[in-house]
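Page header: ASSEMBLY MODEL / two components / 703 residues total.
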Amino acid sequence: MKTNDITVVSSKRGLFSVNLKELWNYRDLVVLFVKRDLKNVYKQTVLGPFWIIINPFLSSFIFTVIFGMIANISTNGVPQFLFYMSGNILWSYFSSCFNRAGSTFLANARIFSKVYFPRLVMPLSGILYNSITFIIQFAMFMILTVIYCFTGDNVHPNIFILFLPLIMLHTALLGTGVGLIVSSLTTKYRDLNVLVSFGLSLWMYVTPIVYPISQVPDNLRSLMLLNPTAPIIEAFRYAFLGSGSVNTIYILISVSVTAVILAFGVLVFNQVEKNYIDTV
Amino acid sequence: MIMKENCVIKTENLTKEYRLGVIGSGSLRHDLQSWYAKKRGRENPNQKIGVSKYSDSDRFLALDSLNLEVNRGERLGIIGSNGAGKSTFLKLLSRVTAPTEGEIRFRGRIASMLEVGTGFHPELTGRENIYLNGAILGMSKAEIAAKIDRIIEFSECEKFIDTPVKRYSSGMFVKLAFAVAAHLDAEILIMDEVLAVGDAKFQKKCINKMRELAMRDDRTVLYVSHNMNTIRQLCSRCIVLEQGKKIFDGDVENAIKIYLGNDSINTVSVDYIDQYKEPCKRNDIELLRAEFYEKTDNRFFDNDAMTLRLIWKNKAEISNLCLRIEVFDSHRYPVTAFVTENFYSGRCGDTASMRFKLDISRIVSGGYSTRYVFYNKENPNLGFENVEIAAGLGFTKITPNMNENPWQKSWGSIYMDEIETEN
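Prediction written out in full:
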């Protein structure tokens, strides 16, 4: 930054005055926050970073037992464990992006009350941090997929796997967008937190995580696909397992919904950010 | 708003309003209830009884249309009593919160230290925290890497730099944090009394460093403190805030005088009737009133004599009364005491009024509080027997600096005569 740049601080702030250039100037901070979190999350634990891998295996195992073996929900011929793991890792990526963004204001109140940096640095570093965990979990998933492929199971990865970066981006932005809205609201209404954690698990069950969308009755299916997370999961499963189908229209709807939510989230966040420290 | 070339900070009409009391109800249900009632023209069910709806009294101006211009290279001190708006001003400048009205313009980057080691993570080592803290304050990684050796050297923490900071002492913590901030490339440096924690030697080092930054590199320093000595040493200009308004802007010494005068309120007398006093075993006399004789304020310059008048009532036969006037500094640390023994005897029921001349010329500049202790020493086996103890009048001592080297508070509160040298 040049020494002669003039910054104006005033009571009014434009609706969309998000200073992207400033955010870019703080890119090192984003990286440092990610490093800090990676170093600290598993401090004083027995297994340390192995939890990143153990977590999806454990929950996929539980899903397999409960939904696959006991409830006997069909997975369209895809090996059950692989089916649940695919849904599991993508959903946990979504929900952790959501949680990180959703706790931005409350979790960082102390630091925000003492020093200025673009507040969006926090959710951004959250996305980056969660992407790293996701990629590690995804690598495990990939290894399993390849193994299943060779044992001749009904698993067919195809050219659509090239869309993985887009799927990730879409998931992260949707989670963060909703999170930003929640974060802005919880500065005023703490009881929203309870509602939110309940809502999140409800959201998981209306998303085809523990069942394939083909199992849903026809008249409900198109309604369920309007849920912006549903087409993402479907696309992910289609690309890596070759199961289910991808409908471009629903994907486009999901993308537009994400765009609207993200824009609204950033807008609200931007307005709340300037004064929230007085009331938090 | 036009900014002159040399001006780095300009505020216009800067106002910050806070709402007192409970803001909102904090729960969605109550807010919806209130909103619904308001919409239907009913009374708010969550309204507190006896509180008018929108009274002006629940609004509080922490900062009231402040206009200020700071030029490049200036070292501006900001002083004022608690609640005068100093920290609010710094918060607005550092963009932690937004003004209610008005505008600030500044040139370049602002590095603010409203707190020591903001964002320091206890689990990370000193070195990692330098990077993190530097980045939080707006430096890029490359900038920090170029300066890290100098930062570590300045912090005096070389030995512990690869130890997690949770094992640091508070002093080391401050040193490291200050070292990072002092090496920022920011054009404007904001400090909110953060030096208070370091030891005297390090405080001096910090002040010198900030002076150096301002004088050699043309940085601008804004410094808030209650410690007048550091203000004197560091600042080239000083403003005094009171109740959100700027009441003085200019020369440091004058600013301090005004601030100290305001701080201890111009109390020159106190009536003890119905006032709480420290209970003591014997209540032989009752102090009624204390006053500075023929004074209009409680400031004493240089060699001004202090004449104190005390009025009391005897509740018993009094003989050989003794009085001790104890003096404490602003941290309630005892400074000295004036003693007079066996100065009075009187009958029960009499009211006595006496003047006491106190030589306070050796007491250094600052605000002081006092305590009056009447005692008796009649029975040598009992030692001191307190007859009455009362909180006394406070006073402010102002002594102009006699030489280049101003008296440091850390040297003590009593001037001694110059050293006589002999061969």
